[in-house]
Amino acid sequence: MKNNRKKQSDTEDSFDKIDLAILRVLLHDSRKTLQEIGAEVGLAATSCWSRIKKLEANGVIKRYTVDVDAGKLGYHDSVIVQLTLESHSDETLYEFGRTLAAIPEIQEAYLVSGDYDYYIRIAVRDTRDYERLLREKLYKIPGIRHSQSHFVLRVLKEASAPLI
Predict the structure, then answer these.
(1) Which of the following CATH numbers is that of domain 11-57: 3.40.50.720, 1.10.10.10, 3.20.20.70, 3.40.1280.10?
(2) pLDDT higher at 123 or 142
(3) Are 120 and 152 in contact (CB under 8 A)?
């Protein structure tokens, strides 16, 4: 266990303010060219490329993606669902996670401590769409003991990376 902590902190400590500046630029617009990134952080394009490759190799940059406005695609509501399972065996947790991953409306799912086992964020078109999702998909998953739903009224903050 000590070795894992050491490796993790070594990785964290090996990034400097320029690496963080590059990450800020990429978080804002990952389509910028190496020349544009370099100009913003004060490096040559080849140096930026080397640092970005290092960030990718170390797993800091996990993937490149597009930030889509779900509302413009017709998914106007988000629902936070708290779920408790009947069983907490390894097999149950694995199957539950696998099933959740296959439901496209589920945007995020967290196994958490506390009164509930999972917090799940779901994108839906409206309340009827949510009722359909519950009936056709979520409540067909075996082992759910209890759930509680909360419609998101307004998003106050949404971040893809904290503290950068």
Answers:
(1) 1.10.10.10
(2) 123
(3) no
